[in-house]
Write a structure and sequence with these properties.
The complex is a heterodimer of chains A (about 500) and B (about 625).
Chain A lengths: L4 H15 L4 H12 L4 E7 L5 H9 L16 E4 L5 E6 L5 E3 L1 E4 L2 E4 L9 E7 L3 H5 E5 L8 H11 L11 E6 L4 H10 L12 E5 L12 H14 L1 H6 L3 E3 L2 H8 L3 H12 L5 H4 L3 H6 L7 H24 L6 H12 L1 H11 L4 H19 L5 H14 L1 H14 L8 H8 L7 H4 L8 H20 L5 H19 L4
Parallel strand pairs in A: 1-8, 1-9, 2-7, 9-10, 10-11
Antiparallel strand pairs in A: 2-8, 3-4, 3-7, 5-6
Chain B lengths: L6 H27 L6 H12 L3 E6 L6 H9 L16 E5 L4 E6 L16 E4 L6 H4 L11 E8 L2 H4 L2 E5 L10 H8 L5 E7 L6 H13 L3 E6 L7 H14 L6 E3 L2 H10 L2 H6 L2 H47 L4 H19 L4 H38 L2 H54 L3 H41 L14 H7 L3 H74 L2 H33 L4
Parallel strand pairs in B: 1-6, 1-7, 2-5, 7-8, 8-9
Antiparallel strand pairs in B: 2-6, 3-4, 3-5
Classes of the chains: A alpha/beta (about 500), B alpha/beta (about 625).
């Protein structure tokens, strides 16, 4: 088999750097080349107060990004795995420098010093963390901020007007409910060229899912139903791979639950005078009413960490016996929050596709430079680029997925699910593509692949098939052949 | 009992209204006694407005902020459908009715208005109270395929008994966000607006923009912060929001409430919980600031009408008194009366100044409103062209469509505001000219009698009062007008774009060659043309409809003003004629009869003057709000 996609991209990047030697564009491409081997860069975006920083903290498993009742994140901030703990400030103009920071109840509080926020391009936080080894997470200011300038920083970062390409490889888009501004923004982040508009590198998260039902305990069930409905919305399908509901606050507190907090909750659950139900009627009552079980300060702290829904849930767990200790409660909260599902989706959609997404970013960068600065060698560069993108099977799969999503290809009833799965929407592993459990034996996988190959061959050769459907079937055949030809293990 | 908190407030209102109604009864008796049945009509109309008022309170805000829950909690009835997911997509108006009822109004936007500018009533269909959600939610009626104009619900509730009509509006910014234009279009029709935003976060950019627009169109604006039971930081959010409002120079209050706590309080009959829900404070505010204010206006308007009637009688008696007091002057008085009669007649004629002002004014106004609309439409087309040129319609059409609806909706609302302002201006001018002409008639009456001049002050007050009176009528004329166009244009009048797949998909999937780019460019140009055509067609249709609507509206305004002042002129004519007849009668009689008549007329005049004083008092008290 020919060189892998990533290798081809690397070669192309080197060629591009050579032909643009000495220009600032070359430096940009060098940087892109370097990061081909870095972890995937996932931007966390969404409207103000959608819960981005909270979710980021949940994914990392630590409270790093500051959160607050009012609008908080104002500067694009990168969180990456590092050898030591440090924060670098990168101004728009001038040299980058290391800055001091303190931790304010966990959250990193950076001393910007003499540089005002508008002049900062980004902050980079190096933080040794297993979670960040797989993915670098980028926290962005919310769109729809009252300060258009603050929102503009996110737009400039993710969907730059000029010919630059966003440094993010993928986007985790958070929304409390689907709003036209969300669609507008997602559409803006779409790219045009390399694989046409792609839902492959964007996942939508129905965030703050605990708030969906105004505090009722079946909030998560409701959120799951809503996410399922959004998944079938054509407008959404076109733009994102899938929609996952997550209650960020529950997730981050579950990940970082302290013994003392469990003890406090247990005391609450057992309270009789007044019984805890009376306290849980409203947030005000919980925070301010008299109760000998816990002081108002302790209760205020619990409310901060869990929210009213979380407290109700936790007390419920303790009372019905499913959380006899802190560990059990933490696990229950994390599970109920939907974080596990999100992690699974991130793994299969982003992490496992790392090479593809990285290659795509690299190719986009080369194309941007080639179009912005035509010169000798541009012609050759562009045709090589076309050869790679047209020839790479992975990109064909991506384009077919997009065509399915946008309705450009309409398969027979019942085929759509199979096709999407075969293209990797549930995960790129062969077994998953064929709809088999992950532990399926090699023989089972081969058998399934043979059957699928035969099926799609029939489809491709059927005289009733339209040209679009035949072509789609042929791509799927190629996928099956790839599975059969791949070395085992 | 929790629900009766508002009883005390209600009494206050009734007093002013009761007094005004009492004055009407007295005036009617006087009118009957003096055989001036031509004046009864005005009194009847005033009575009707007092007894059967209607103030529309629009509940607006982004979707999923708790509007429907708020209304349900306010009324303690599941009137508006509430769901975690699906949002309201058509307006629901809730008013008082003895039994629960519901009706759906279907769009009749294509029906023409008649010569006087009156649009036919939309088709109304009675439905089951429980089936309301089938017509107003996005889920049961997606994209408003049922062509619902709005839904009307009636339930027996104390809060609504005073004439309050609560209107639940579709949330702005939902998936089908053409809805925002409906709401903006409905703003001028509202007597008050409640803006709803939940306590999960401070005002967003779009929310604040909306608030600014709402404030400029409706002075009675109130903000409500919902879901305070669930968000512990609600006080901080309220503070932040108050700051934003101050910065945006939007003057209004923010009231915190929780519909959940309210529902629980009512169920458990818990007064403390009810207070915590914030509802008593909100209802109190509505009663004091909204209903009481609207009431005050209605009472003042009614008093205007009564005084107008009473003044006719007073003028009659005053003039007759003069002729009786000084028999030597009788011939002179008779001559003056004859002259006054001629003046009054002229007032009714085509050549009267007020008629000319009205006729010319309406023509001018029509031209200006048309021009304003044309300019706006042209700008929209330019902006749309720019957007289409800068993007690929295949990608952006789905977002462009709602943007266009919103944009057009805003301009419709602005054009409407313009018409409204200019029409009010015109009404004022017509009133002034009428009063000036009228003065001519009155002064003829009273030449040589200094005591009458004291009442000049009364006359001036009457001018101001007259203007407002006409203004009230103008409202009805202008208000009824634009809803039709707005509903039509906003609920998707755009002919769909047949875009189809981007390229022969085969080519896109397999080839990826250079020639593909050229083909792409050609197809892009084609799509752009298609997009521009569809946009133009839609915008043209909107302009056509709107021009028709504004013409109808102005015709209605014209008719109402004309009818109003014509009726006044007829009354004046009648008064002068009656007086002339009485004077002629008195001239024939002997001294004894004249003496008796003098006593009688003095007494009548006193009675009429007292009635007038009483009514002035009621009007003044109504104007001063209760401390």
């Amino acid at each position: 088999m020919s060189e892998s996609l990533l290798e081809q991209t690397r070669t192309l990047l080197r060629t591009a750097i050579d032909s643009n030697a000495g220009t600032p564009e070359a430096a940009g491409l060098e940087a892109v080349l370097d990061r081909l081997d870095d972890p995937l860069r996932v931007a966390v975006a969404g409207k103000v107060k959608a819960g981005k920083s909270t979710l980021l903290n949940a994914l990392v498993g630590e409270e790093l990004a500051p959160t607050d009742a009012g609008e908080c994140t104002k500067i694009v901030t990168w969180y990456r795995d590092g050898v030591t703990y440090k924060v670098m400030l990168h101004p728009k103009v001038g040299d980058s420098r290391q800055v001091q920071f303190t931790r304010d109840a966990g959250a990193i509080d950076v001393a910007l010093g003499s540089t005002p926020a508008e002049e900062v391009d980004r902050l980079e936080v190096d933080w040794p963390s297993a979670a960040l080894k797989k993915m670098t997470l980028i926290d962005t200011p919310g769109i729809g901020s009252l300060s258009a300038e603050v929102s503009a920083r996110t737009t400039a970062f993710l969907a730059p007007d000029d010919d630059r390409v966003t440094p993010a490889d993928a986007v985790l888009y958070l929304m409390k409910h689907l709003h036209t501004t969300d669609l507008d923004f997602l559409a803006g982040f779409h790219d045009e060229e390399v694989s046409q508009a792609t839902p492959v590198n964007a996942i939508a998260v129905l965030s703050r899912a605990d708030e969906v039902a105004a505090g009722r305990l079946d909030a998560m069930e409701s959120a799951i139903k809503i996410a399922a409905r959004y998944r079938t919305e054509p407008k959404v399908r076109k733009l994102v791979q899938t929609v996952v509901p997550v209650a960020g606050l529950l997730a981050v507190t579950g990940e970082t639950l302290r013994e003392a907090e469990y003890a406090a909750l247990a005391k609450l659950a057992a309270a009789t005078e007044p019984p805890v139900e009376k306290l849980l009627v409203s947030a005000d009552r919980f925070a301010n009413a008299d109760s000998p079980a816990l002081t108002t300060m302790e209760r205020g702290a619990l409310l901060d960490r869990l929210g009213l829904f979380g407290v109700r849930l936790a007390v419920g767990f303790i009372r019905d016996g499913s959380a006899p200790n802190a560990g059990a409660l933490a696990a229950a909260l994390v599970t109920r929050s939907g974080l596990d599902d999100l992690r699974r989706v991130l793994l299969s959609q982003f992490a496992d596709r790392r090479d593809l997404l990285k290659a795509r970013s690299g190719l986009l960068a080369v194309e941007a430079v080639a179009r912005a600065r035509p010169g000798p060698g541009t012609e050759a560069l562009l045709s090589e680029l076309e050869r790679i993108t047209a020839g790479a099977h992975e990109f064909r799969e991506m384009r077919l997925l997009n065509a399915l999503r946008s309705g450009a290809v309409t398969p027979k009833a019942g085929d759509l699910e199979d096709m999407e799965r075969l293209l990797g929407t549930s995960g790129p592993a062969p077994a998953t593509r064929l709809g088999l459990p992950a532990e399926a034996s090699e023989n089972d996988v081969r058998a399934a692949a043979q059957a699928a190959l035969a099926k799609w061959q029939r489809r491709a050769e059927s005289p009733m098939a339209s040209p679009e459907t035949s072509d789609a079937a042929r791509i799927l055949m190629r996928t099956c052949e790839g599975i059969l030809a791949a070395p085992v293990g | 009992m929790v629900a009766t908190i508002e009883e005390g407030q209600k009494q206050e209102r009734s007093r002013a209204v009761g007094e005004a109604l009492g004055a009407i009864v007295q005036a009617k008796a006087a009118v009957k006694a003096y055989e001036r049945e031509d004046l009864t009509g005005r009194l009847e109309a005033a009575r009707e407005k007092l007894e059967d008022p209607a103030f529309h309170v629009l509940v607006v805000g982004e979707f999923k902020q708790g509007k429907s829950s708020l209304i349900n909690a306010l009324l303690n009835a599941p009137v508006c459908p509430v769901d975690d997911d699906i949002a309201t997509s058509a307006p629901t108006a809730v008013s008082w009715s003895e039994q629960p009822t519901a009706a759906v109004l279907y769009r009749a936007a294509d029906e023409p208005a008649d010569a006087d500018g009156e649009r036919p009533e939309p088709e109304r269909e009675k439905i089951d109270f429980d089936r309301v959600h089938e017509y107003v939610t996005e889920g049961a009626n997606p994209e408003n395929e049922r062509r619902v104009h709005s839904v009307e619900v009636g339930i027996p509730r104390q809060l609504l008994a005073d004439g309050l009509v609560l209107v639940d509006t579709p949330g702005v910014g939902g998936l089908g966000s053409a809805h925002s234009s409906i709401t903006i279009g409905a703003l001028p029709m509202a007597d008050a607006v409640i803006f709803v935003s939940d306590a999960s976060q401070e005002f967003s950019g779009p929310e604040l923009d909306f608030l600014k627009t709402a404030r400029s169109m409706c002075p009675n604006l109130l903000c409500v912060l919902t879901k305070t039971d669930f968000y512990p930081e609600w006080r901080k959010i309220k503070e932040l929001d108050e700051g934003h409002l101050k910065d945006a120079r939007v003057k209004t209050v923010i009231l915190p409430i929780s519909s959940t706590l309210r529902a629980q309080a009512v169920e458990a009959d818990d007064q403390e919980l009810n207070d915590e829900s914030g509802f008593p404070a909100m209802v109190g505010y509505l009663q004091r600031e909204v209903i009481a204010n609207a009431d005050a206006l209605t009472v003042k308007a009614a008093c205007n009408d009564i005084i107008g009637v009473v003044d006719q009688l007073a003028a009659q008696f005053t003039a007759e008194l003069k002729s009786l007091q000084d028999p030597e002057q009788a011939a002179e008085v008779m001559r003056q009366l004859e002259s006054a009669k001629e003046q009054a007649d002229r007032l009714r004629g085509q050549a009267a100044k007020w008629q000319q002002t009205l006729g010319d004014g309406v023509a001018d106004l029509q031209g200006d409103v048309d021009h304003d609309l044309r300019t706006r439409i042209r700008r929209i087309m330019q902006e749309s062209d720019e957007v289409i040129e800068a993007t690929d319609p295949a990608d952006t059409w789905e977002e462009f469509e709602p943007w266009l609806y919103r944009r057009v909706g805003e301009d419709i609302a602005n054009n409407y505001q313009y018409l409204q302002l200019r029409a009010q201006e015109l009404s004022r001018r017509v009133a002034e000219h009428f009063a000036a002409d009228e003065e001519q008639v009155a002064l003829e009456f009273t030449v040589g009698d200094p005591i009458q001049l004291v009442d000049q002050v009364g006359v001036e007050a009457q001018i101001e009062v007259e203007v407002m009176g006409a203004g009230q009528k103008l409202w009805t004329g202008v208000r009824g007008g634009y809803m039709g166009v707005i509903m039509f244009s906003m609920l998707g009048g755009m002919i769909g774009l047949a875009l189809g797949p981007l390229l022969p998909v085969a080519a896109g999937l397999v080839l990826g060659r250079k020639s593909l780019r050229d083909e792409k460019e050609r197809q892009l140009a084609m799509r752009r043309n298609q997009a521009k055509n569809a946009m133009r067609k839609y915008v043209d249709e909107v302009q056509f409809q709107l021009a028709k609507d504004s013409r109808d509206t102005l015709r209605r305004v014209n008719r109402q003003l004309r009818d109003h002042y014509m009726a006044r002129a007829e009354e004046l004519m009648r008064s002068v004629t009656e007086t002339l007849n009485a004077a002629q009668q008195n001239a024939k009689g002997d001294a004894a009869t004249r003496q008796k008549r003098l006593k009688d007329v003095s007494a009548e005049l006193d009675r009429v003057k007292k009635l007038r004083q009483n009514v002035r008092k009621v009007a003044t008290e109504a104007a001063a709000p209760a401390p």
